[in-house]
Protein 1
Amino acid sequence: MQNQDQNRLYVELKNIVPKNVLTTKNKARTWTYGYNEKYNFVVVSKTGQIDQIINISGLNVALPKAPKDIFKRSKKKEEQYWEPKILPKQLTRIKSIFQWHDTPSSFKNEWVDYIENEFNYREEGFWFINKGIPTYITGTHYMYLQWTKIDVGFPDFREANRIFYIFWEACKADKRSFGMDYLKIRRSGFSFMASCEGVNMGTITKDARIGILSKTGSDAKKMFTDKIVPISNNYPFFFKPIQDGMDKPKTELAYRVPAAKITKKNMYLNEEQELEGLDTTIDWKNTGDNSYDGEKLRLLLHDESGKWERPDNILNNWRVTKTCLRLGSKIVGKCMMGSTSNALEKGGGNFKKLYNDSNVGSRNSNGQTKSGLYSLFIPMEWNMEGFIDRYGMPVFNNPSSPVLGIDGEMIHQGAIDYWQNEVDSLSNDPDALNEFYRQFPRTESHAFRDESKQSLFNLTKIYQQIDYNDSLIMGQNITQGSFSWHNGIKDTKVIWTPDKRGRFFVSWLPEMSLQNKVTIKNGRKYPGNEHIGSFGCDSYDISGVVVGKGSNGSLHGMTKFNMDNAPSNEFFLEYIARPQTAEIFFEEVLMACVFYGMPILCENNKPRLLYHFKNRGYRGFSTNRPDKTFNKLSKTEKELGGIPNSSEDVKQSHASAIESYIEKHVGLDLVQNYRDSDEMGVMYFQRTLEDWAKFDINNRTKFDASISSGLAIMANQKHLYTPAKEKSKISINFARYNNKNSVSQLLNK
């Protein structure tokens, strides 16, 4: 179950720049590295020329224009792939810049072009022909592939890593970005790639500090000693500065004297002119909320950030370390963050929030995401070991004939087919399955799959629906927007406006004849579409909170079975937000009810919303608690409507309503009680599904979406909760007489 773009890491954008502008600026080489506000893309080219423009995870990136001469391993198309070049034997004997200065001029003349080209590739990137296709890799990616020794020797070229490095280069180039937040699969090579960048930046940057954090201090130390230090030590002499201290340091790698960029112009400079130090260090810190607090960082390598367990908190740490990367409003450092995710209660929940706050498509007035980072996710099938061909491309499905892999082994099975077999084998072990999903996710939902032990509802069905929704192009099913009064005049007609900044998400809009259907009886307004559906709401009364963050207001709209031109038994609206004031929330809820012409059932322990409805003349929209007759209601309940949240019976009825709805309308119905076994349920709202998956009946306050969605179901099914009529206790006994004699005699006295 995949959408058509599932197996695409980027989308090529056409006609972003007028052809004449592109030609003129390329000729003049005037494209500047960094964010281009006019065309809303990030230029990663350092040549002044651009060509292809792609979108990666919502970020538009302009790539360099290909040079005329591109490296080609072979003239045969099938033999064209990435292969690292071996350092010439003559240069392996030279261990430092000082030894280079001691070599004869003839030797320098022989090798200066080679060395200068390597510096250019490091700076501008590298082009090579890959199976007939001109392929660009960034300078950092080139350093990783060509000059980085990892545990298995040289790294493989993978298309997934190519896109990763282009995205990272865009993060570095974009003045609005603090770096990247990479949601990855297990054994994707991120730790080595991050270490490579640490060494690459550390060996060319003056007066800089590069830091390392991981899920524990020992993990950060291991990354430093087992990756950073060996990578640095294995650099060729022309890239390797002189270190201060031991060859194998345990806590800090200090670069004091740089490896000068060797060019034809400076190849004859004497040693004394080369002794200006870099004064750049790479170190690691123990895991904690205040790691690197108060320090200035040029680069922060943040590994395993989805596995910070209590008392450590990645959110608190990022709030602190973020300040280490800026001076006032200017961003002076970048963070390369990446991880798989733990279960939500084991650090994954905080990482999920940080990842969601890094969505490139959602920015504040300063042009930054909420976290400042840019999120990137690459599905499992793109980076699974054992399923990459020698051109760096994944084998998705079982091939018709074996494919030669990058490791020299033949690939007989596709990554997706392998993955599905694993999923099928774990279908009876929910926790093992969810762990596999987190380790090898095909979707973001897989990556944040939670443990199943605490779930009240049918997790199998919920996750079936979540996975199915991931396969859809949600923009075709859900519209984001806002409601407003016509011409700003309250209590007239409500207008719906699509708006990416809106707080409402809707999957169905009623036809014009059903919109704003309000009836008036005895001067009171009533919903005209009660026969079609209802709303449920979890409200709040206080605009601001003194300490911490208050819960969100939540509203759900749901249809019931109907004969009108509307879906039946479907949720059609989701609103989970906390506007600046409670009054804004109240008015938005009211407008939604008026637009759809449907009643609303709310919990009455937070009565301000209900008073808002009553004072505006909409008491008729507020549904009374269905489990009591009107004459049994309290005075307040008669005045406002609503249902209490303190009653144990109400709590159980509420949970039971959600449970029943999930069984009937969510996921697959394999026993075919309600629909064909291959027909998926219709429930488009992922946040609500995820809330159901975590719902705890003993701690309901955290689950705003569950509360409001359950109330919507109860409102539509209120007949199920109507108390049975009491049988009359009055007994009428007629007198009985013996009439055999002339005088009637009364019996049974």
Protein 2
Amino acid sequence: MTPTTTHELRAELRRLLSEGQDSAVVDLLEGLHSADVAEIAQELEIPEVLAMLQLLPAERWTDILVYFDDELQSEILENFTGKEIAEVVLENIDSDDAADLMADLSEEKKREVLQNIEDVEYAKDLADLLTHAEGTAGALMATEMVQVNENWTVSRCVREMCRQAEEVEVVHAVYVIDDHDILLGSLSLKKLLTTGARTPIADVYDRSVRSVTSTTDEVEVARIMKKYDLFVVPVVDDMGRLLGRITIDDIVDVIQDEADSNYQLMSGLSDEVEAGDGLFEMTRARLPWLMVGRNPNLYRRRPQRGRTLAPSPTRLFHAPDRSHGRQRRRPILGHCRPGPRQLEHARNPLVPPVPRTRRRPLERSPLRPGHSRVLVGRGPRTALCRRRRGFAAQRDHFCFALRNRRALGPQPLRNRPRLGHRPLYHDDQRHLGAEHLLRHRQRAARMRALLVDTTHPILEDGLASLGYTLDRCYGVALSDLPLSTATGLVLRGRIAVDSALLDRAPQLKWIARFGSGMEHIDCAAASARGIACLSAPEGNAPAVAEHALGLLLGLTKRVTWSAREVAAGQWNRASNTGWELAGATVGIIGYGHTGPAFADLLRGLGLRVLAHDAYRSGFEGESTLAQIQAECDVISLHLPLSPETKGYADYAFWQQCAHQPWVINTSRGNILPLEDAWRALNDGLIRGLGLDVVDLEKANLEGLTEAAPFWQAMLNHPNVLITPHIAGWSTQSFARMAQILVDRVAGVA
């Protein structure tokens, strides 16, 4: 008779293992799901489980291993070396399951496993997953997923998906990101199959994607997936960059654990127990609550005035809670004798248990020497001020203080909550009543900040502390932005703010640019409407200065080019002779924020620095443009983009230079026309180019060769070094710019 139940299958498996019938064991397990095999093997001894797993292919038994509980997984993995775990176990399972398996290993064995993983990127992802705290979304997510760029076409998207899908067992969703890995939306497979091959992905993807951060609690993730009926949810970091995804199978485990925990709490179990535990374990877990229930005095209510305890039928009565003069009803458990009002209320629920009491009038607290006089009155919300020295404002009261009866005039309340970005004031002549408070509430409700792009948590938290409601519209089309209710607008330069857009925002008071350039914003039109334009150019100045120095050193010391040759198998020393900066003169054009920061670094190296700015004067090293062209060995551009500076450093500009300078540009690409710079380099007018920006800059390099036929030749030139506009991108600069913007928004009237 063929075994069918779990018990029968387990007994048959034990018999076959004991008799050494290996082929029969494989035939028995062949038609079973891995979860069923794990359930059967759960009650076996460790040697029996190991013997069973060794008979199966690596892909099969590693899949079964995932379904074991944590204790059994740890016991099995202890029988393998770190190299065996890396080569056999982790190669056949997803990263989230791999992280779960490694979580219970010792730190020494974790390091051994990571060192033996051949795929460096996979090892790095696995190490990052192990750093997330238990119980968070980061600990549940897997890094295997399909992601496409918003600037790709449908045909290229299909090719990339086919390549990426080789590493993903099941494709639940296709995520759309930008060049900085920021999540923008999701792509429907139906739209992908029914759309033309040349259609841009930006025209077809869905921007209303639900996501969670890596620090989100796992229970909150389960709530979000249940609320929105999601099978998979993406995980992002604080900057909105895509990190991984969480599937429904991982969330089911979280829901089950939470349900078990709630069941144990409702059952009075103080320790974690299993359904199959014996009577002794169940009794021990429930013992604290049994001891509490054994003492009846713990349930007795203390006798009230003129009232004695006497035996009476246990019944649920209601008595008044006279705290703060409010009429509340709360249950009384025990054998307390009810009064006449309670008995009447029990017979007729329409009769209140106690008569309503009138609120007490305003009263003055006693005045202590050296302290303030506190006037306590009743109000609709918690205290606005708490006097820590000698006085404590009661809940649901307003407190107003006068120091030693002196008429100080209007004074700000201390320890007050922020009801908007304006402080509240009081004096000794008037009461801050409900009407005044309502006005502040209404004003705070009207303060809405629209976030078009992802910024930094410091900026978001700062705006929230100022009383702003945040509307995060990442990836939303320009025409769909809710501008009519926005008080503030936060962007990073991806959209153009012109008069047409400002007309749609009648309540707009300020525009905050998370960066340095303001060329995308029509500041004149905004100023005419009374809108303040804010930026933080000094926030990323140190990062840009360091990047400019890195470009200069990389060019003159041929660091990048020689490293590229070594990677190609070439060891050329003579052809990679460097150029010393000692004794050189560096010219800086544009001396706003990044220019002085770059000059400080250069002076620290002992270099002579000349600087020119058309709108500033009186700074160290000030010189004319002609002097810089005549004397400088290095010229670095730090100009803002404007109609006056567009095409500033053209071919004619370099014809006036006498020393064949090295050229650095970390400002804006349109200041230095790329074609003119390439021509000047080939004609020997300049020695080399270090560029972080180009005038043909796009979100990707697609189509750049057609627009600039010399582009590939420029990339292959040994004296050209180009980076993808990352000079101002650093962890410190993001935080610094965010704090600067918060301070400037707070200063807007």
Protein 3
Amino acid sequence: MGGLCSKSAEGPPTLPRNVSKEEDLKVAPGNFVKENTGSFYNYYKLANAPLGSGAWGEVRTCTLKSTEEIRVVKIISKTELPQSMINERAAFHEANIIKKLDHPNLPRIYEFFEDEQNYFIVLEYIKGGDLFDRIVELKSFSEAQASQIILQILLAVNYLHSCGIVHRDIKPENILMNDSNSLSLKLVDFDTATVFRNTSFRKMFGTPLYMAPEIVKGKYNEKCDLWSCGIILFILLTGRPPFGGSDDEILARLKNMKFDFRDKIFKGISEEVMDLLKKLLEVDPNKRISASEACSHPWLVNLKESVEDIEVLDILKNIKNFRGASKLKTLIHTFIISKIADPAQYKTELAVFHLLDANRDGKISKEELVKLMVDKKLPVEEAEMYAELIMEHADIDNSGFIDYTEFLRASVNKNRVLTKENILNAFKILDQDKSGAIEVEELRQWITDDGSTSVRLVEEIIKKVDKNEDGKIDQEEFESLLIDTVRRKTVSGKTD
């Protein structure tokens, strides 16, 4: 898919062009994330107790009334913001960054609201607590556990950096565990994130304990994120931070930062691990390892989820045999995969995605597909032909890469995604006014977030599935679009 990661350089802002042809409609998870001009409280029921709070607001769980799905909302109080940030609507900066990202170690975002008192950003509920709490619970981690954690963080950082985004506040509190029984995680909280293009920054952001020395010195770049990863790795391995003190004391120490890696605290840690730790905690950012290099470090390079050859070949065959559908069906299918279906069900597909993503930048190229198939003893010419077919079927926006959601859309069996519950929930979300049908303006606003899709095009799209010719899509027509004849009765609830 496109988005930030497909851009080689920032260009001047352009006005949205009017989309009047179905083939010109873009299909990406970010398309479905937009500002909801209604009242947050009309759509969500807010939990009484906050999960956490900060200088500008708080985070609470909330329940989407139409589907009973639990999400989280970041509530940012306008009374705590300077007028300049309110004028610029700076609170939505985070939402506008996250909506363009597509990676298994980054959170889903759904929508955002504004009223007279607050801004609301609605995000995925990640229920396993944060890494800070896990560290407090376990005290320290084995090298195997530490490698699982730090690799996922580095994969997220490498993807962000390949998209031209620096996070600037990576710390255990901003790393959420997907559940309490595993080390699967997501990097969250993009308040201080920003776009970079071969530039350096001067304004100080971050949390002192995890802040790179060059930030204190007043000139830094995206390599500051790697230092933060190094501090986290230090804590995982030793069970304690590298230094203590007040924020002011830590900032003063960072101005003349030196590590003694001969300290007895590192006794028993393997040479490979120490090598990565030293490269992450290199004081000179010009000598510090990059995210891409860190992901390919000898300690981490062979760390992959276990997946059988037959599973890899089956998924590649699914993608090769995948056939495109109407643009509306493709949009809804993508919406369900990226915003509704439980991401925990994609474990095998995720393992294959990581296996294919050889350079670990969060997307799959044709060259990576060819390499894997040649490694599996397929002749080069056959592998190239196979890869060409896979790219043709999966890369729906012709960006030259297969992003994570594109990969899932083509590889996951539709019967697992287009379930009765998922289809019904998708319909309820699209039927914003709860009228029992999806109307022209509801569909138009859902398809694009800039109002660029023409009314006539949306009317033509609806006409293709509007069997009773009332100019709307009712629930039965919606189901008929997505389900084959064999399964239609089951999903409509007429039979089990």
Protein 4
Amino acid sequence: MADTLAAGLKSAAVDWETLHRNYNPLLNLVKELIGIIPNCDPILEIWPPGFRTYNLLVPNMFNLPNTIFGSKSFKASMGLAMYASSKAACSYCTAHACSFALRRGARTEAIAGNRTAKEQAVVTFAEKLAHIPSTLTLADVEEVNQHFTPTETQWLVYSISMMGFLNKFMNAMGIELEQDAINDTAELLSQTGWTAGIHAHGNYRVTDSSTPESDNLLTYLRVIRQAPGAVLWEKKWTAGVPSDYQSAAKYLEEHTGYSFPILKPVKESRVVRTLTAALRDNLDKAQSVIGLKIKMYAGFIFSTLVENEVLKSEIRNLSERLVPELNTELFSRLEGVAQMEIPTDNAACLELLASLQQQFSLTEKEAAVLLLATATSYSPSQINEDIINSALKQIDPPSIIEIMVWLSLLQLLNRLSNYYSLTNGY
């Protein structure tokens, strides 16, 4: 019996040989940045748009490889923000972000909690923006702005938002933490109370303790060698996608039926282009295996649970275009689903699935997807053994990945919109 969704989907995962044959530059570039190729890749490729979404978002939301060649102080701060925004949501991402931060020059003392005023400002900013619901204040933003340029602050926001995607997917799936990541970070992180949890089956062992080296000339040369191949994939995946909001709004209206005004405050061209491509792919009816109706149901439940009224409004407006039958009464029922207790035994799970089928005229698979989505929408997720068994029994592997990627994208938008709601008042 699988104890995580990732373990239950191993037989459906795409093998490493195929991934390297198809995407070698992408995989190797990530390895240069954090020392390992993440175990999520074979799982994501089960639903190819999921793999594409992840591999588009990561370099663009972290401004890679530009960040690597930029200010040493800022890239260390970005790594620290990534780490701090993950601590409460995902042990897997906490380890990876710690490794990224150390490689970019962050101090081990800052990870452990002994910080300068600048480092503490970054940590507070990241933790509060990542909190569910967001607790970030204008005073927190002003404190960060004392230490960074406006452009740098924006990139901190984008990186924290991207960690929202990663936190949601890795935690909900229970992706297994790589041994090299454990060796790089576990001894340091153990000083903070970190445990690997579900990402190491409740236990881990350091086999060869080492501290990651900070970026040096060899790092830069290796990144330069891999970057061109990764850029070719990005150009292929974003061909024809605009990089300014005004044009992107028209493009999204044409491809999804909605202009996504939630993206209007985003000014960085590569971020606009990437988010536009990700939304296009995740709302493409032809590529969906669960159907857009269930994605709208799940999106509304998610936005309700994270208490984000801006995102909730976006989902309602999007639903009007994609699922016109999703009326006020159905939205009210979905509000009720968001408030339900997650079942913790098989009998309660079966009872709830039957109720969802009846309330919303769903198939068994659709009801199971909605239950899985609801449990996933909490941070950390509330996916237990019975939810896992239900999902693996009634949902095909590509559908599991699709709903997880969709909710992860919404978590990114949740953090992003919370920042702009505070600073822009929209």
